[in-house]
Amino acid sequence: MPRVFITGLGFVTSIGNDAPSVTRNLRDLRHGLEVYPPFDKPDIPVKVIGTIKEFTTDSTDPEDWTYPAGYRIKRELLRTMAPSGLFAHCAMLQAIADAKLADSDISNSETGLYAASGGSPFLLNYHHNRLHKLGVLRCSPLGIVASISGTLNFNLVAAFKIQGASCGFSSACASSAHALGYGFDDLVLGRQKRMFIVGAEDGNLDAILPFAGMRTLSLQTDPNLASRPFDAARDGFVGTGGGVVLVLETEDEVARRGVTPYAEVLGWGQASDGHNVAISHPEGSGSAAAMTLALRAARVAPEQVDYVNAHATSTLIGDVSEARALRSVFKSGLGRIAVSSTKALTGHGLSLAGAMESAFSAVAIREGFIPGNPHLRQPDPECADLNLPRTTENRAPGIVIKNSSGFGGANVALVFKRVA
User: Fold this and answer.
1) What is the largest CA-CA distance in the chain?
2) Are 42 and 383 in contact (CB under 8 A)?
3) Which residue of 84, 253, 280, 408 is most buried, as measured by CB atoms within 10 A?
4) Residue 111's beta-bridge partner residues?
């Protein structure tokens, strides 16, 4: 079976907008959470998000947006983008440079792109309001492609002249993990030689605040206390946005181009809870099944796993469900495996989360460390038997599992390996 490797990464996240800053902040456990000015209203109980620095995208007119000076994006491209599209475009440019890809490597029938995003509620609301208040002839002809859930793949495939497989994935917070899994399959089955895996979210008021209606967002006003996965005092997740891109390539392409991979993708698994539209199965049965299938596909025994980058969002039900899933899979060996959720640093990226945290895992594997759980003070008794390091462990994990879960009980587990 062909081997698959991660050869390039691009980041626009709350903890950094390039690989060096992300690596530094992951290792130093420096979070990117802040009090968010648009939430500073008496009728909004939520105050903290993972903010994207150096980008300003609060206007409905992309020509008013600002972004780091190193990027050159044509006006006609910007006009079709949501904020998430801008983040993803910049991350894509980084990933291409990081993987040392030539134009001919990008635009050919054997290079594809899978993307995941919830679309742009911000722009969708704006364009719908114009439709109803001013009439259809006053609507932008580009409003649909800039705002609906496929906006990432529409824009990126056109801008980068992708000729291979392309698709958008929609399984809520498991979306970009699904994209990575299916991208892996296309490479293993010989359908493609290279895949871009993209996750991005606007990360603004319209994208995050609706979750307050579900009572799932943290009400903490102190950014240091707001995102506390596995902690007994956690009270909900912190939203964030951004864009992350991973480049996946076959072993033959890695050898042909002479690049050094971040990590190998060994396999993946998925399973559904069959339980509830919004809440994880209390025993974590779907997550446990996804991990079991992933390990089987990767031909890895549970005792070989060194680190789990958990989905744990800092919600009361979800973190306990995942802890029970881990207990079910790893049994007596659970205490040996380090577990952490990097959402303590970034917040929860929704459909972006799987790609973002897979990229974090790849960085940790190549750079030789395991991120800790920085805001964990008193573990929930249901999670107390997990090995939850408080600080960064300066050891290289050999085998890593990345868990993702989404609405409807969609669960994905990805298995990564250190390249010797």
Assistant:
1) 65
2) no
3) 84
4) 194
The residues that are catalytic are 173, 311, 348
pTM over 0.90: yes
Tokens found for residue 385: 């038997």
What dihedral angle (degrees, nearest 10) is formed by the CA atoms of 403, 408, 409, 411? -30
The pLDDT of residue 166 is above 90: yes
**Location of structure tokens 């871009």:** 196
Cα pseudo-dihedral 136, 142, 146, 149, rounded to 10 = 60
Tens digits of residue pLDDT in 370-416: 999 999 999 999 999 999 999 999 999 999 999 999 999 999 999 99
User: What is d(CA 325, CA 317) in angstroms, rounded to the nearest whole number?
Assistant: 12
Mode of pairing for the β-strands spanning 410-417 and 194-201:
unpaired
pLDDT score at 420: 83
Q: At what angle do helices 151-159 and 83-99 cross, to 10 degrees?
A: 40
Which of 176-187 are b and which e, b meaning 16 or more Cβ less than 10 Å from the residue's Cβ?
bbbbbbbbbbbb
Evaluated on CA atoms 406, 245, 389, 337, the torsion sign reads: positive
In 63-159, where does DSSP find H-type helix? Answer: 75-78, 83-99, 103-106, 121-134, 143-147, 151-159
Beta bridge partners of 159: none
> How much of the chain exceeds pLDDT 70, in percent?
100
Among candidates 200, 171, 196, 167, which has minimal Cα distance to 184? 196
Residue 166 makes CB contacts below 8 A (sequence gap 6+) with: 112, 113, 114, 115, 153, 157
Check: CB of residue 130 under 8 Å from CB of residue 138.
yes
What distance in Å separates the CA atoms of residue 102 and residue 321, rounded to the nearest whole number? 44
CA atoms of 140 and 143, how far apart (whole Å): 5
Domains of the chain are 4-417 (3.40.47.10)
Rounded to whole angstroms, the Cα distance separating 112 from 187 reads: 10
DSSP-based three-state secondary structure for 212? helix
